[in-house]
Specification:
Elements: H1 8-21, H2 25-44, E1 49-53, E2 60-69, H3 72-77, E3 82-84, H4 85-90, E4 102-106, H5 112-141, E5 147-155, E6 159-165, E7 168-173, E8 188-197, E9 204-208, H6 212-222, H7 224-227, E10 231-239, E11 243-250, H8 257-262, H9 267-275, E12 280-285, H10 290-297, E13 305-308, E14 312-313, E15 328-329, E16 331-336, H11 341-345, H12 350-359, E17 362-367, H13 368-383
Parallel strand pairs: 2-3, 7-9, 11-12, 16-17
Antiparallel strand pairs: 1-2, 2-4, 5-6, 5-8, 6-7, 8-9, 10-11, 13-16, 14-15
């Protein structure tokens, strides 16, 4: 009985894939043996067979696997699955067999090499593609929630695609694109990996330039004190491409968190502003006292007073961005000098809106004179 061989090029390919692609030889051999078993069953009909592939020589052996039994009816019904004890003991070295043992008998056909080569090529290449896809998925899964640099490759109606290497593209949706940026093919940009999905066609990687976490990662990169935990980011409120507020605090009383993030002559924060194409940055100090924190968050406006309202359930029709169903809404009234009301509110209400997101308080801003009028009216009502 001849011993079929797979082309020696296959053996070389196994070595190459293991060294260059990181695909273990054992995984490919396992797939190859499964493919050969399927090919044998399809062409010769035997069900209980095992195939052995020798990775050194390329030799293939097919073994029929039978269970030894004393049930003659079972043997007659399915001789491919069962062998009688008497027949087993007639085989060379068969005297040691007993009922229930499995016996492997080589049944390699003469023409099996041709069939094996045809079948194995298709199935093995499929397994190789699957394994390569898994390697790429595992690699990029480690980049999830991190910054990665890529090159803009193309664009369609739904996404801008960023080439991340390894023939892999990240998809950046409309909401993840900076409104002040226009992307061109071959532009190199830094993106935040928001999600990595495993798909049969290959890993699906979604990236963003607008996520607040992108800003956090940029600060970690530019400010060593954030990276080592001396300075911490409490919260970020961002309107991508326009303005962001970052609340920071220090674990070390001798370290100024705001000054540390700004850097000498503003060098650290300027590097981040440049990366985000001119997005303005307000770095404010986080303190546990909510009144002081709210005042800091409304920077650059001066705050005269912060008056907290009693917690009340969020109304059905009016819900702040930070309030979820069933929770109470935290709110306050902030008093500012008359000449700083517009500054506190900001252009199109942006400064107040970002401060509210940063502090997680609904903020009502009033001028000093307006507050005095309200107080006077309240006193008159009380007197009457």
């Amino acid at each position: 009985m001849s011993k079929p061989k797979i082309n020696t090029e296959m053996i070389g390919a196994l070595d190459y894939l293991e060294k260059e692609k990181g695909i273990k030889k054992e995984i490919v051999i396992e797939a190859l043996e499964q493919a050969l078993e399927s090919a044998y069953k399809q062409n010769y009909g035997d069900k209980n067979v095992e195939v052995e592939f020798n990775s050194l020589t390329g030799n293939i052996k097919v073994y029929a696997v039978k269970t030894i039994t004393d049930d003659e009816e079972a043997v007659e019904a399915d001789s491919n699955e069962f062998m009688s004890l008497a027949d087993a003991r007639k085989l060379p070295h068969g005297q040691g067999y007993d009922i229930g043992d499995e016996i492997r008998e080589e049944v390699t056909p003469r023409d099996f090499g041709r069939i094996a080569a045809q079948t194995a090529k298709q199935v093995v290449m499929q397994r190789l593609r699957e394994e390569e896809r898994k390697i790429i998925y595992d690699k990029y899964k480690t980049y999830e929630n991190e910054i990665i640099t890529g090159e803009v490759s193309r664009e369609d109606k739904r996404f801008t695609y960023v080439d991340l290497g390894d023939g892999v593209e990240g998809a950046m949706g409309f909401r993840d694109k900076m409104p002040n940026e226009h992307y061109h093919v071959h532009d190199r940009i830094q993106v935040y990996v928001t999600k990595v999905n495993d798909d049969r066609r290959g890993p699906q990687i979604f990236v963003s330039r607008t996520a607040p976490e992108l800003l956090k990662r940029l600060f970690e990169r530019e400010v060593p004190e954030i990276k080592d935990g001396t300075v911490l980011i409490e919260n970020i409120a961002r309107e991508a491409g326009d303005r962001a507020k970052v609340a920071v605090y220090s674990n070390d009383p001798n370290v100024d968190p705001v000054g540390t993030c700004v850097g000498p002559r503003g060098s650290r924060v300027q590097a981040i502003v440049n990366e985000l194409d001119g997005e303005n940055m307000d770095i404010v100090e986080y303190v546990k006292d909510p009144a002081k924190f709210i005042a800091n968050a409304l920077n650059p406006a001066e705050v005269l007073d912060v008056i907290f309202n009693e917690d009340k359930p969020a109304s059905e029709n009016e819900e702040s961005e930070e309030t979820t169903e069933g929770q109470t809404e935290r709110s306050c009234t902030v008093v500012v000098p008359d000449n700083q009301l517009s500054l506190a509110i900001g252009k199109r209400g942006q400064n107040a809106r970002l401060a509210a997101r940063l502090t997680k308080y609904k903020i009502d801003i009033k001028s000093e004179s307006e507050m005095a009028e309200n107080d006077q009216e309240s006193e008159e009502v009380a007197d009457s």
